[in-house]
Structure formats: C-alpha cells, structure tokens
Amino acid sequence: MIASVAGVRGGIIPCHSGYVKFLTTESFCLFFSYSGAHCCLIVNIHAGNENNPLEIESDTNLHIVKLSWTDAEDPADYVGLPKDRHFGWHESNERFYYGIERRAAGRPWMPFTKPPPDQLPSFDKISFVPKQLIVHLDLKGAPPRVNQFRDLFEFFKKAGATGLLIEWEDMFPFEGDLEPLKNRNAYTKAEVESILGWAREVGLQVIPLVQVLGHLEWVLKHAEMVELRENVIFPQAVCVSNPNATRLVRLIIDQVLALHGDDVEYVHIGADEVYQYGECARCLENLYNRQLERQDLILEHIANLSIYIRNEFNKRVLVWHDMLNVMEEKSLEKWSLGDLVEPVVWAYAENLEEYLPLELWKRFERIFKHVWGASAFKGADGPSRYYSNVNHYLMNHLSWQKQMNTLVKEKVKLNFRGIILTGWQRYDHFAILCELLPVGIPTLAVSLATLRAGGYDSRVDELTARVLGCDSFRVDTTLLSCTFPGFGIYSSVEQLKAVLADLDESLYSKHEFQGWMNEFSIRNNYSSAQKLVELCPQVRWRVIWFRGFAASFKTQLNEMFIPNTAAEFFAVYVEPTVAHLQKLANFCKRIFAMSSFPRRPFPLQRHSTTGNTTELSQEGEDHANMMLLRSQ
C-alpha cells in the first residue's frame, strides 16, 4: 500500500508502510520509509497557522514533516487523501493504516486508529493501540489435540493476534533426566515441530513460557525433587541457592529453546508469585556469607538465567512484573535488570487504577528499556469459573486502554511492545480446570477487536460476530449459531450453565424441596410422598437429560482435547450434580415404596456420606414406580 503526502513545497513524498507513535497529547508521529531513510510525519492536533501549514526539517538520516492546520481547514487537503478519514497505515496484514476525523463542530481534529471501513470502526478520541497482540496458550490444563492447532492459529490470526505465548509446562517432550517429569500424554517432538510450523505458516510469532523460579509445581511435586524446594512443605518455588536447582532449570530451558529454534526472538521466564524465598538453610547461609539482602537472591537468579539465555541462545527475556515491583530500585540496578529483562505488567481486574498506579509506570520508565502489558480473556475470574464472564474481561481490556492513554497524557515515555492476552487454564498446576479454550474464544475475539479498534461500541460487536462466524454478537447474550473452533463445546457449556441455574431456581429453592427432600429426610428415609409428587418427576427427567448430555459433550471434548480432559471436567463440574440427582431419584423410589414410617423419636442416621443409597429389590422398585405413577 502506498500513500502520498501532498502539499510539501514542490512535490509529493511517497510513503510506504510504517507505524505510529504518540509524542504528546497534542501530536503524533507516523514513522515510515522514504528513499532508504527513516521518516517521521509529525501531526499537530491543535489548530495551526494557515499561512504556514507545512514545513520540512531534515538531517542526514531523518526527514520530519510537520503538518498543522487551522480549525477551519481540512487537513485532508494537505495529505492528498480522502477527506473523511483515511490517512496512513493500520497493522493488518503487516501494514498500518491511520486516520484523522473531526471530533465535533468547532473542535480540533484528533487522530484515531482506523483500518479500511470493512474491518474496524473508528473512535473520535486518542486511543492506545498496541503494536503486538500475543495470545497465551496455557497447556498445563486441557491441552488441545495436535490436529486442532492449525484451525486455532488461523482463527487467532483472523481475529488480529500477532503472536503466541505458549506455556508448555509438563506437556513438552522432555528427554533424559527430565523425561520422568513430563505428562503421560505429553506431545512428541514431531508434534511440537508441527505446532510451531503451523504458527509460522500463519504468521504468528511464538514466545515460549518457561517458569524458572515459582510455579514449578509440575517439577517439585515429584518425590525425587523435594530437596530442590525452597520450603519442603510447599512444592512451589525452587531454592535458588541450590546448584542442582539451577542446573535443572537450565536443562529445562535448553530443551525448550533447542526445539523452538532460531525463529524465537523472546523467551518468557515467568518468575511471578514467588511466595517462598530466603527461607531454607542454604539460602540463609548464602545471605549471611555474602552479606546479601533477601531480595538479592531472586534478582541474582533472574539475572544469571537472563545472561545465560542471551549468551547461549541470543533471545530477549520477558519476566512477570509483580516480583520486580516489590524490589528496591537500587537492587534492580545492582543486578542490571534494566538491561537484561523486559517486564510484563499483568493485571486482570476491571479497574486497573488501584493495581497499576502511575508511579509504577514512572518507576519502570526509569529502569527498563522495554515494557509489555498482560490482560486476560479467560482464567482470571475465579478458579472454578467454567463459563465465561465476557463483560468482566472486556472491562479489563478497556481499562488497559485507559491506562495507556493516561500514560500518553502524563508524558510517560515507555517503549511499550504490546499486550499479552492471557488465557489461564488452571490457577496453578494443582488447581482444577477453569474456562476451556472454546469457552473463552468469543471473549478473546471481542477483546482483540476492542484493542485493535481503540475502543468499544456496537460496531466492535458487529466485527466480532464476523470473526466468530456468528449471526450476531452481544456481550451479555449466549451465541446460538457460529463457526469458530470449538463452538460445540461452547454451546454445551452454556447448556450446562443454564441447566444448573435452573436446578437452583426450579428445584432446590422450592418450598417442598427444602422441607421434605433435604439431607435429613434423605438420610433417614423420612418424608411425605404427597410433598414429593411434583419434585420427583423433575428429578427423574433431569437424570435422563444428563445421560444424553454427557454422551454428546464427552464426544466433543474428546475430539478437541487430549485424553483425560473430559474425565476431569466431568468429575469437577458435572458428576457431583448427577450423583446428587441420582441420590434424590433413589430417595423418591424409597419413599414411594414405603407404606409406613416409624414413630418419633426414632434412631437418626448421622454423618452419612452415601445418602443411604441402598438399592431397592426389584419388587420394591416396581412398587415405588407404581405408587409414583398413581400419585401423578
């Protein structure tokens, strides 16, 4: 795509694809290439001097075109492009598109992100648009089957992602001393090569995430690794003073980066939520002998591994920000962290002002050369949330835009690389599964569209619907007909959510249920059949529904995910309800089979965990069914 800047004294400058950077709240700079030189088109947002709308400043390697205009003028006259909105580039298909549009009558012109009209809406305000949008794949839970990755990657690219953060954990095909640590269903080397190849084919850069300090539960849970723990009780963090722990971490890094090859520019080493450090005997001795501060242990570990990765593999190192944020600035400088790592500031709340104060950004501006952000599209709204709360995650991304716009306004000069949209599958290695990937895909789509557009309104909903292959999309509405990967799983989870909600409303909250079908009644087989006449048929049809639902849903899960995912999901989110309903159904049979009841007081059944689920004889079951039919 080639655009032109007209009106420059004596000619037209051909401008090829480039990128945009805000300089102040009153100007932005459009960088592009021109005749082998790097150019910057500085656009002043405020009204200019109509007698001198253009002037050129240049040096050996940089051509700067300053464009200004009066409020009464049309800047499109000067840029030689359509007057409504077109100007520059947008990061779509590796191009940038930029626009200018009047905010309101009598008000200055303002820049906004604007691709071609059929792709993204525009917003009449300064909006932050990250250059890189990285989608996080958390494979420590519900890892997809290999044949699913191609469709997923093509969808991510279509939705606007530029890369992937892949957290392999125990699904990586570790060898040698690490082989006993991997998942029994781990991918093979050939499968990982295929996965990485498909990412490369669709144009998604891959960033491997390798935890090197905390969240090493997948390693430290093993009996032979207990001695590497910082605290023997908690298999969460390694002892950084133990040389065997350092060797183990380096071995993990070696194998992961060797298989990823030269295509990888970055590696993320995690290092978040380290709750135990400087506690064990080795660390205490290390602190005493070398006269170190407790925080030096973590910072030295991160610094040494970052140097190792840079020297051995020539990769840039990313690290979660939370531990760096609580360290003293002088300690970060002591270990040269500003030169060695790029912090990824993660925050998943709906309002980030409390979590990311301006001082945090100013502090990182002083220390680090580059900074990333991390939002969430799933897995950050409760460890047992199995369905998506789209509005929560959308608010998180809008809050991220607000944060970045504030930094522009406050003139905080951060070299912000982009945003990683995290999609956690477990809160940690020991936690249960939360939202499955297909459940989070609609949230991912609207989040990416919002970040790319620079804001959110109904036009973003329309774009999201097209990306998802849906008839329509609304944040607060269940999707009914779509073509995105895993839509069947999304739909089944929405059904499950609706049925479980209906159980509370239509059964558990009923007057008769609470008085005559409670745990006391079940344990002691003591209730009134008259009060159960309406409840028992509801219990029976729900048991039947779950049987049919389980068969189809398990098939969907087994098609998309590796073995055991369906079993675990059902064990957590389905089977407890089915078991309870079956217990209620058995209770109904027993009550309708009973012709008499003991007088009070009678011996009470206490603390039963089985609910007295003794099977009836065939004669007793037939009698119960007959009595139930007669009662209806």
TrEMBL record:
| Chain intervals for the UniProt region annotation (Disordered) | 603-624
Question: Ranges of Polar residues compositional bias?
Answer: 606-617
- Which InterPro entries does the entry link to? GH (IPR017853), Glyco_hydro_20_cat (IPR015883), HEXDC-like (IPR038901)
Instruction: Enumerate the catalysed reactions.
Output: Hydrolysis of terminal non-reducing N-acetyl-D-hexosamine residues in N-acetyl-beta-D-hexosaminides
Q: Has keyword ATP-binding?
A: no
Q: Which residues form the Glycoside hydrolase family 20 catalytic domain?
A: 183-328
Keywords of the record, alphabetical order, are:
Hydrolase
Q: Which GO terms describe its molecular function?
A: beta-N-acetylhexosaminidase activity
The encoding gene: Hexdc
Q: Which Gene3D superfamilies match?
A: Glycosidases
Q: What is the protein's given name?
A: beta-N-acetylhexosaminidase
> Origin, by domain of life?
Eukaryota
Protein family (similarity comment): Belongs to the glycosyl hydrolase 20 family.
